[in-house]
């Protein structure tokens, strides 16, 4: 991995690869081998100050905000094309950082390229300026949407390319400048994106990239030169960021945790539901905030659901993410596996019945692997139902009836994603309207960043994804004129 990136020992600031202030380095460990695969520079607060200053100068004095949306869109298309061209390198970096299967990493790279191109298309279709008839005097009323300013984009380790795409692309189209803060566990993809930004000729300071841990990250959140924070990560960290931003009325978008429910109605086939749920539960080894992990089913069908999910997981091939026959790789790091194991032990102590998995695969003697796991008879007030485990662990929760199932699904601090399994599309819609989550799928785990993605309650504030994702990077301004300006006359 060290050979793929050109400047792993530097930071990208003001269009240049700069030496960090400190000699500190971050070691990246491959989760399948437990070997160090790369070392990168670690930013400290002084580096954050340099990056914010560069972004501030590029916004306040540079040409970027004043370029037309069509011109900015050209850069987005160029970035998308460059991502497409480097998909094979992404498929090498990403599995070695968090354990994603290599073919999935490559396909995700192509999806990210398409997303940059989709945002670019908004340069043609979105109304950055609208004419309205003033109601309180004046001849011409204009509603204009202008960039919010300097954006601090903070991304986690589980899906860095996907998540940075839906922060950086809309910010750039809006005319913002960006300080991209990479996770210390998974810095490779942000480094590669910085190389792409340099290659396509983005003006200096428009995108800056740092890798830093919590101290420097909080400094970025507090920095008075940053107008908006866009963060994806845990709800605990999101609460902290919201409180800091509130002190100075900074804008923020938060995409946080989830404990999503699959509500299985009695008309739907148990085996079909189990196949759908198990097939998506192993995506990113369960390290996806929107994963369906609470399986809510009526008591009379509880045991059949547990057996069907266990049978599906029995067939999952766990292995190295570069092994072409592997269907699930490791979790990202040792502490993540330790946390999953501790939560499973606590769940059993609280009365949950372990039906399948719960340990480490016997055929793998190294790496942060864990078996896909099913628990039955899980109470919705226990740790397995309340905590975001962030691993391939499913909890089957019995419900008295359909109304009780809906109540159980909504009885959580989270509200990111849910699904309804039924053959009746009208019932799916009706129940979907009652579930308190940002996305509701039908008969499968679904999310769609082409529409909107984000959460209710403690799953976040704001939305990401194409049009809905562009709006948080814009400020609305009303201009009322005595006559029509020449540019629209």
Can you walk me through this structure?
- This protein has 489 residues and is an alpha/beta fold.
- 39% of the residues lie in helices and 21% in strands.
- Strand 5 (129-132) and strand 6 form a beta hairpin.
- Helix 2 packs antiparallel against helix 6, helix 3 (87-93) packs across helix 5 (102-125) and helix 10 packs across helix 11.
- The protein is globular, with a radius of gyration of 23 Å.
Q: What's the story with the biggest beta sheet?
A: 7 strands, mixed
Give unreliable regions as ranges.
none
| Quaternary structure type | single chain
- Strands ordered across the widest β-sheet: 14-15-16-13-12-17-18
Structure classification: alpha/beta
Chain-averaged pLDDT: 96
Number of helices: 16
Bin the helical content: 25-40%
Query: Which range does the strand content fall in?
Result: 15-25%
Total strands: the figure is 20
Q: Distance between termini?
A: 56 Å
What would you call the shape?
globular
Radius of gyration: 23 Å
List the SSEs and their pairings:
Layout: E1 11-13, E2 16-18, E3 25-29, E4 36-41, H1 45-60, H2 69-85, H3 87-93, H4 95-98, H5 102-125, E5 129-132, E6 140-147, E7 150-154, H6 160-174, E8 177-182, H7 188-200, E9 207-211, H8 214-222, E10 228-232, H9 235-248, E11 251-255, E12 260-264, H10 270-281, E13 292-298, H11 299-314, H12 334-349, E14 353-356, E15 373-376, H13 383-386, E16 393-399, H14 402-410, E17 417-421, H15 425-434, E18 439-442, E19 460-461, H16 466-470, E20 474-481
Helix pairs in contact: 1-8, 2-5, 2-6, 2-7, 3-5, 5-6, 10-11
């Amino acid at each position: 991995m060290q050979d793929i990136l050109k400047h792993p020992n530097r930071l990208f600031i003001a269009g240049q690869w700069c030496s960090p202030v400190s000699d500190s380095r971050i070691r990246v460990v491959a989760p399948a081998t437990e070997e160090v695969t790369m070392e990168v520079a670690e930013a400290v607060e002084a580096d954050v100050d340099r990056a914010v200053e560069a972004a501030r100068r590029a916004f306040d004095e540079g040409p970027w905000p004043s370029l037309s949306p069509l011109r900015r869109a050209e850069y987005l298309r160029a970035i998308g094309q460059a991502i497409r061209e480097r998909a094979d390198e992404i498929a090498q970096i990403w599995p070695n950082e968090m354990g994603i299967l290599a073919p999935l990493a490559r396909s995700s790279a192509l999806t990210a390229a398409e997303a940059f191109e989709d945002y670019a298309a908004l340069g043609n279709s979105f109304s950055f300026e609208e004419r309205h008839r003033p109601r309180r005097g004046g001849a011409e009323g204009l509603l204009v949407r202008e960039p919010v300013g300097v954006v601090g984009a903070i991304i986690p380790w589980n899906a860095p390319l996907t998540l940075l795409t839906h922060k950086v692309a809309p910010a750039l189209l809006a005319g913002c400048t960006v300080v991209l803060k990479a996770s210390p566990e998974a810095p490779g993809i942000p480094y590669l994106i910085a190389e792409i930004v340099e290659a396509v000729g983005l003006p200096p300071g428009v995108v800056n990239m740092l890798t830093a841990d919590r101290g420097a990250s909080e400094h970025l959140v507090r920095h008075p030169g940053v107008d908006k924070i866009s963060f994806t990560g845990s709800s605990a960290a999101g609460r902290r960021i919201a409180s800091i931003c509130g002190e100075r009325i900074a804008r923020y978008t938060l995409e946080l945790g989830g404990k999503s429910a699959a509500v299985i109605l009695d008309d739907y086939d148990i085996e079909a539901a189990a196949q759908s749920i198990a097939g998506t539960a192993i995506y990113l080894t369960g390290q996806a905030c929107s994963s369906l992990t609470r399986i809510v089913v009526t008591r009379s069908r509880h045991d059949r659901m547990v057996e069907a999910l266990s049978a599906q997981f029995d067939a999952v091939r766990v292995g190295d993410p570069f092994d072409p026959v592997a269907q699930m790789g490791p979790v990202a790091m040792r502490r993540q596996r330790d946390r999953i194991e501790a939560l499973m032990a606590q769940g059993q102590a609280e009365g949950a019945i372990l039906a399948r998995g719960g340990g480490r695969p016997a055929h793998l003697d190294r790496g942060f692997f864990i078996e896909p796991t099913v628990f039955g008879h899980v109470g919705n007030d226990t740790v397995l139902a309340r905590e975001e485990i962030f691993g391939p662990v499913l909890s089957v929760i019995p419900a008295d009836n359909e109304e009780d199932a809906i109540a159980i699904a909504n009885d959580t601090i989270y509200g990111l994603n849910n699904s309804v399994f039924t053959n009746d599309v009208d019932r799916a819609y009706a129940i979907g309207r009652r579930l308190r989550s940002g996305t509701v799928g039908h008969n499968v785990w679904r999310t769609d960043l082409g529409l909107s993605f984000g959460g209710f309650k403690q799953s976040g504030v704001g939305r990401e994804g194409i049009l809905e994702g562009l709006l948080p990077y814009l400020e609305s301004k009303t201009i009322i004129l005595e006559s029509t300006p020449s540019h629209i006359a």
